Every structure is written in C-alpha cells, then in structure tokens.
Amino acid sequence: MNAFAGTGTLFRFALRRDRVMLPAWVYALTAATASTAVSFEKLYPDAGSRERLAASLAGDSSLRALYGPLHDATTIGGITAWRMGVFGAALAGLMSILLVVRHTRAEEEDGRLELVRAGAVGHRAPLTAALLTAALADLLLAALVTAALVLLGQGAAGSAAFGLALAACGLVFAAVAAVTAQLAGTGRAANGSACAVLGLAYALRAAGDSAGGGLSLLSPIGWSERVEPFAADRWWVPALAAAFAALLTAAAYALLARRDLGAGLFPSRPGRATGVPALRTPLALAWRLQRGTLYGWCAGFAVGGAVFGGVAKGVLDLVRGNSGVADVLRRIGGRDAVLDAYLSTVLGLLGMLAAVYAVQSVLRLRGEETGGRAEPVLGTAVSRLRWAAGHLLFPLLGSALVLAVGGLAAGLAEAAATGGSSAAAAARLLGAALVQLPAVWLTAAAATALFGLAPGWTPAAWGVLAVFLLIGWLGPVLRFGRWLLDLSPFTHLPHLPGGAFDAEPLLWLTLLAAALTAAGLAGLRRRDLG
C-alpha cells in the first residue's frame, strides 16, 4: 500500500473536526493585528510622534526583550509588525502545535487512529494530513493578515512579508510538534514538549534582542523578526524557515517508521503493581492527573509576571512625552498614574491567561469521559459528583495559585526595576492579581455547564473564552459600546492597582459562577456518560 494512501480523506476529516477551532484561531490573530494597526493610527498619527517612539525604544533593552526591535517607525505597518510580530509568531506556533498533536498523538492515545489504520490508510497519511491542516491554517493566517493590513492602507509588500513571517514560524512549530508526537507516548506529553521548545525559542529571542547579540538567530521566533516587514522585507527568511520545517518533517517521518502504533520512542515508565494509599480517593487521582499541567502553568506565570514587572521602568520611559499612549493605558487601567495603569493592564492579561488554564482543567473531565477512563472509576463506590468535584478544584484553587504566583513575581520584579519596596509591591500586585478570580471562575463555570448539560458542545467553551478575551482585551482600546463590554466578565473587574475597589461586581460574578457550576453538575447527574 502507498504510505500516503488516504491522506486526502483524513485531511478533509481534520478540516471538518476543526471547523470551529481553526477559524477561531485565525480570526483572533487577524483581528488582533488589525485592531493594533487601528490603535496605532490613532496613537501615532504623524511622523514626529513615530520618531519619538523610535527614539524612546532605541535604548530600552527591557522593551526590546518583550516586543523585539523596532525596524521601521515611519509607517503604521512597521509599528504594528513590531508590536504583534513576536506574539503573533508565538501564537501561530502554538496554534500549529495544538493542531498537529490533536490529529496524531492524541488520536493514537484515544485508540481512534488504530481503527483508521485498519482501513486502506498508509502509515504516513495521518501525520501528513495533520501537517497539511496546520499548513493551511498558517497560510490562511498569512493571507488574511496581509489583506487586513492592505485594506487599512499599508504597503502590500510589507503586509505580505509580515503575514509570511507569522506563517513561517507556524510551519516550523508544526514540524516540531510532528517530532514530539513520535517521541512522547501521550498527547499531553507531546504538547508539553513542543510548547517547551516554543518557550525556549521565545526566551532565546528575548535574551538576544535585549543584549543586541546574535542569540535570537537560534530561535524560529527570532527568524520571523529577521524578515523586517515594511523595512528590509527579506523574503528569503520565510523560505529558510520552511526548509528547516521540511527537515524536521523528514525526521518525523523517519521516527514514525521506527516505532509501534500507540507507543512513543521514549518508553513510558512502568507504574507500581499496586496503587499507593494516596490514590484511593477521586481527589488524589485528579491531583495525579492534573498536577503536571498546574506546575507548568505556575512556572509560566512566574516567568511572565517577572517579565511584565521588569519592564515597568521601560514603560514609564516610553510614555514620557507621548500623551496618546498614556491615554490608552489610563483608559484600560482606570487611573491617572501610568505605572498603575500599565500594571493593571498586564495583570488583567494574566487573569485572561488564567481563564485558559481554568477551561483546560474543566475540559479534562470530558477527556476522561470520552477516553473511557471515567467509567471504571464511577463503577466503584464513587459518585459522579465526587469524581467531578476532584477535577473542578483545579479551576477553582489552581487558577488562584497561578494568579498568586504571577502577581508575586510581577511585584518583586517591578520593585527591583523601579527601586521600590519588595514587600509592599508584592502584596499590592498579589491582591491585584487575585481580584481577577471571579471572572476566571465564571469562564470555568460556563465550561462546566456545557459539560454537564450539553456534553457534545463542550469544546464550544473555547469559543466562549475567545469572546470573553477579545471583548475584555480589545474592547476598552477600540471603545466598544457599553452593552458589548458587559458581555465579558473581565470588564466588570476593579482596575487594580490604583483604581477603586468595588466588591459588588465580584460578588455577582461569583454567584453567577456558582449557579452555572451547580447547573452543570445537576446535568451530569442525570445524563448518560459518553
């Protein structure tokens, strides 16, 4: 049989499965780029304001570490490429990782790929279909970003170069995920390994840009920067990245031929012959299953909080003399003090990221159910509510832990950067981070309600989260109407530090979260499993 037999059918099936996830990712990244360009058009309407921006960034290593160097300040497109290039490339890489692992290692882990391979399907077809799906998503992202920037009046060549820079990074990490899917034995391990490579690439890029050396050349995200859209427009850089992705893909095919179906090349460590006493409760089992994810998110929040807090002094230097940027920060943060407004903004971003963790933790329940692992547990003297409660403690308390870690790290880093008191800054930002919890809990509660009442629609929780995040992050900058802003729980939170604390919206959000969670658990008690 041809090794690629059935690729077209599997590719079409993957597109059908991702008919919601894929457009949501592409739309979110395109909308973020377009809204950034619109915002910068208002903030820097003339050449003088853009020159002042370039001058303020020239000597600020902290902001270069966060966003990368500004290659072209003469056009809005160049400033947009600076602001969105690093994050856009990283998010395109994350999108590609999730798509490839979803259709390869995750399918093997759940046993579905074994059934597919029993038909007229070549052994390379599933991996090829997954890579084609990711490549289509990356190229569609490049096309839509290019079209959006051109429609906003930016140059076609620079817009196309920026779109291809994002797509090239996505292709590289799709290939990275193809390799980790052969090495790891589970979907979580494959995603975790590929995301670790993505995090290392971001760290190398940040260190290289901050020091002004060539260390960023070791990072695929750094390669995207080397395209220099709206400035040099180096077309050969995306081609080089695509060639590197092709080499990694060839390595993935070679590894695929050397392993058994369902097994990774890294052998799984055999477990104990008998379970330890600590695994005799549903909560202990949930902890065993979710602790790795919690540790990873805590580490990420510690790094993110330290980075955001460390650039506080650089932000003050940036807004000095630029009333437009200060106005945006005040509008988001809600206070005249620019530093407090900036810190309020980044802590709000950490709250939105914590909501991603919370939804991921809730959806683990659906994964245990559809994977057939919940049924043996519930066949014992364990009720559905006890089983679900063990997992739901992680979006409840785990999200509080990751926010506390991020707030403490941001406070300590901000104190080190500005010369303030470490204890006072840590306490102040810890409280500002924890005030995000009611919105995070409400997002997790919406996912719980879908899981209990409409299990087939459980993945739509990601769509609900995307709506909340887009409104909460872009709404204040783009001045959405009040009725639209009210749809996101994140727009009801007090703007801390600096703003006035109001407990009433926090109480209402918490009560609504409790009601949705109760509805979801009630539905779980009455419906069929699977």
What would you note in describing this structure?
There is one protein chain. The protein is mainly α and 530 residues long. The protein has a domain at 1-264. 75% of the residues lie in helices and 0% in strands. It has 23 helices and no strands. The protein has helices at residues 7-17, 21-43, 47-58, 61-67, 76-103, 105-110, 112-117, 125-151, 156-183, 187-211, 220-226, 236-256, 282-310, 312-319, 323-333, 338-370, 374-378, 384-418, 422-434, 437-453, 460-478, 482-485, 503-526. Helix 1 (7-17) crosses helix 8 (125-151), helix 4 packs antiparallel against helix 10 (187-211) and helix 20 (437-453) runs parallel beside helix 23. The two termini are 35 Å apart. Mean pLDDT is 85; it is low at 332-336. The chain crosses the membrane at residues 20-40, 81-101, 127-153, 159-181, 193-215, 235-256, 294-312, 341-359, 392-413, 433-453, 460-485, 505-524. Keywords: Membrane, Transmembrane, Transmembrane helix. It comes from Kitasatospora kazusensis.
